[in-house]
Amino acid sequence: MKTVRALFVAAIASAFFLSIAQAKPEYAKKEKKGCTFCHVKMGSKDLTDAGKYYKEHNHSLEGYKEKPPKKS
Description:
Order of helices and strands: HHHH
Oligomer: single chain
Radius of gyration: 17 Å
Number of strands: 0
Distance between the termini: 61 Å
Helix content: 40-55%
């Protein structure tokens, strides 16, 4: 019984921390952009320039100017 209780607590804690770590789907829907527009890769907390702008501007891309890709 202790094992079941411990697993239950671990599952609840995992769900809580996973929900904090993930991007919010409502942001992607609101801006009509994919996750990787603001995040370096799927599931990553690392932000692109657009993601940093979004975070710093009250969750809005209004006024954001996308930088042209670097030439090789």
